[in-house]
Amino acid sequence: MPNVIIDYEKCEGTECGECAEVCSMEVLAIDGDKITVKNQDGCSLCEICTDVCPNEAIKLVD
């Protein structure tokens, strides 16, 4: 099962939010002012979220 890890020290949260917008599997979500992992099991390791993150705040571990 993939593990989605968000580095909150690097993440801009809702100021950016691109990762949550591009995730077609709805793994990431905006919760208040930060990005959260909503559906860990749904991750297909496509890496689109890591590609759009300007701060390299998301890591995917298989």
From TrEMBL:
Pfam families: Fer4_9 (PF13187). It comes from the Archaea. One of its GO terms (molecular function) is metal ion binding. InterPro entries: 4Fe4S_Fe-S-bd, 4Fe4S_Fe_S_CS, Fe-S_Ferredoxin. Keywords: 4Fe-4S, Iron, Iron-sulfur, Metal-binding. The keyword Iron applies. The keyword Ligase does not apply. Residues 2-32, 33-62 form the 4Fe-4S ferredoxin-type domain. Gene3D superfamilies: 3.30.70.20. PROSITE patterns: 4FE4S_FER_1, 4FE4S_FER_2. This is 4Fe-4S ferredoxin iron-sulfur binding domain-containing protein. It comes from Methanobacterium formicicum. The lineage of its organism: Archaea, Methanobacteriati, Methanobacteriota, Methanomada group, Methanobacteria.
